[in-house]
Every structure is written in structure tokens, then in C-alpha cells.
Write a structure and sequence with these properties.
By secondary structure, the protein is an alpha/beta fold. It is 39% helix and 31% strand.
Amino acid sequence: MEVTVEGQRSGAAIVRLAGRLDLLSAAAVRQRLMATVAEGHSRLVVDLADVEFMDSTGLGCLVSGLKAARLAGGDLRLARPPEQARTILQLTTLDRVLRPYDTAEEALAGYR
């Protein structure tokens, strides 16, 4: 799993994930999300366009990131989730909390 973070002028950050978000990578992603919030970026956009697969552990790490962001006064939004990730979000009804957006720019626009 590759994780890159791009800070924005607005104080938000885009976290881009590439690879499999599963049991093997979830702890590292969770740690990176927590570190990004601790660095002062409480408004997160997680770009999932290059995520090949996501399981329940990966979903749990996104929920942990959401909790950390909200505790810091922010939020976490998802951008460009692939069909498999959208299906998991819908089946668990977490798409109501982790709202998916078609682009990172759309997700960021709500923060302004």
C-alpha cells in the first residue's frame, strides 16, 4: 500500500491510497491518518481511486480516521471510491457517514 499526503492551503489534506486496503496494510494507513490529523489537517479527503481491494479491516481504519478527524473538529470524506469499495460502503450503510465524492476537488469544495 502506498500512502501520499498532499496538504492544501485551506488546511485540509488529500490522502491518496494505492494498492490493497486490507488486514496487511490497514494499521499503517490508520497510523498515517492519525499523524496527518496530529499535524493539523483535521479535514481529510481520502482518494481511493487506486485502491484495488478493500476489506472490513480497511473500512475500519477509515472509520478510525473519521473519528480522529471529528475529535479534532474536522471530517473525513472519500473521493473516487472504486465499485468494490462503494459496494462495501453501501452494504454497511457507512456511505451515509463516509460520504463518497466523484472527485477530490468536489470533496474539498465542501470544506470551504
